[in-house]
Amino acid sequence: MAVEKIKKIAVIGAGSMGHGIAQSALLAGLRVYLYDNDKSNLQMGTNKIHAGLDKMASKGQISENDAQEFKNNLSPTTNLEEAVSNVDFVFEAVPEVLEIKQDVFQQLDELTSKDVILATNTSNMFISSIAERARCKERIVGLHFFIPVVLMKIVEVISGKDTSKETMQTAYDLCVKLNKIPVRVEKDSPGFIVNRINGPVRVYLGAVVDEEIAEPEEIDALMRYHGLPIGHFELSDYIGLDVVNFSAQYRKKVLHPDYAPNKKLLEKLEAKQFGKKTGKGYYDWSNGKPSIDIAKRTDKIKIEDLEIVKFNEAAKLIEDEIADPQDIDTAMVLGTGYKAGPIEYVSKLDLNEVIDRLEYLSTRFNKEILKPANILRKNPDVVFQSVKNI
Ligand SMILES: NC(=O)c1ccc[n+]([C@@H]2O[C@H](COP(=O)([O-])OP(=O)(O)OC[C@H]3O[C@@H](n4cnc5c(N)ncnc54)[C@H](O)[C@@H]3O)[C@@H](O)[C@H]2O)c1
């Protein structure tokens, strides 16, 4: 289906992501059916959308009339059939549990006509696994939005094993219509671009903390000192250490054992310290956001190493033809708030020294995933092509 024909959409799951996707679609002039199997969560999601639209009106970003019209275009429901039987596109944003998602997609497959595209907002999982129980797999695609959805421009558009080219293109075009900047992930791969590239950084910093080379706060202070928008451990607390653990376990299973959660993370989980949501994680959140003292920054690790580690994972995505360099840097800048992507950053360094450093880190911390990607020795020009094109 061409994007011009998409007028009505459904969002499945009215939580943190679902209500944001619904609001973005309303702002693009679409009719939105919002479904949740929990009545109070549906009400909460609806209230958040109304409050979000009111706030935009009070700031003059939209007119009062538009805010009202968008609210009129929203139909919350706890009846799945009612939500999806008459729409052109469906966004799924239910919890990150494979069984739940497979079940939802099986039902969506049965309840919608074959030209309706079905998109999952999974943060990690193979699109093909989520589509496993559906008969019509070519219309299932990944659309990974970032939180808060209304403000974050980036969306990763992910092809599953069976996703058709037409489905990819329409999903991409719909993101543009929602005023987003989509990037293409051409092959099904866990964590896609941003989460995948940040994964080895967690492994590296986890080893640094476990070996007591530096404390989480000292590392975050170093990152803040260098102007980065947030420290690694602050961000982990903000996301939730249970969620971080889920990603670690999933990647350990499907990518490499090195992704296993580190000792310190396991200790936090054992103590039920999940970060902001429980008031304690790496930091104490009971009095609000932790304040990081940059004077405490560590001199035991190099800030450059974090970029080198990300760059190496980016190179692997390019080598495996999962994403192209330009899209990788775009996704990393828009998804993480850094000023430059890892490819642009490393393009200013000596590549031989970068390769030597990766060899050193891999050996020093006994992590195979930190070994330099083959493409860095064989065909580095392919990795740096986007930087040359700028
Ligand atoms: N929160 C984030 O930062 C973030 C960012 C990107 C992607 N994601 C992904 O988005 C998805 C949703 O995450 P979230 O943070 O919005 O979760 P959430 O817990 O805030 O919301 C999930 C909603 O789904 C509802 N739900 C549960 N089972 C359902 C079912 N069978 N049918 C319909 N509704 C059902 C729940 O009642 C809840 O309202 C996950 O896959 C997550 O990995 C989350």
Describe the structure.
It is built from 18 helices and 8 strands. It has 390 residues and is an alpha/beta fold. It folds into 2 domains: 3-185, Rossmann fold (3-Layer(aba) Sandwich); 193-390, N-(1-d-carboxylethyl)-l-norvaline Dehydrogenase, domain 2, CATH 1.10.1040.50. Helix 1 packs across helix 2 (39-58). The site of nicotinamide-adenine-dinucleotide has 24 residues, from helix 1 and helix 5.
Offer a few descriptive terms:
3-OHacyl-CoA_DH_NAD-bd, Rossmann fold, 18 helices, alpha/beta, 3-hydroxybutyryl-CoA dehydrogenase, NAD+ binding, binds nicotinamide-adenine-dinucleotide, 2 domains, globular, 6-PGluconate_DH-like_C_sf
* Proportion in β-strands: 5-15%
Helix content, binned percent: 40-55%
Low-confidence stretches: none
End-to-end gap: 34 Å
Averaged pLDDT: 96
Rg (CA only) = 21 Å
Q: Do you know the CATH topology of the largest domain?
A: N-(1-d-carboxylethyl)-l-norvaline Dehydrogenase, domain 2
H-E order:
EHEHHEHEHEHEEHEHHHHHHHHHHH
- Provide the CATH top-level class of the largest domain: Mainly Alpha
CATH architecture of the largest domain: Orthogonal Bundle
The quaternary state of the protein chains shown equals single chain
Main sheet makeup: 8 strands, mixed
Number of DSSP helices?
A: 18
Bound molecules: nicotinamide-adenine-dinucleotide
Organism: Pueribacillus theae
Protein name: 3-hydroxybutyryl-CoA dehydrogenase
Pathway: Lipid metabolism; butanoate metabolism
Pfam families: 3HCDH, 3HCDH_N
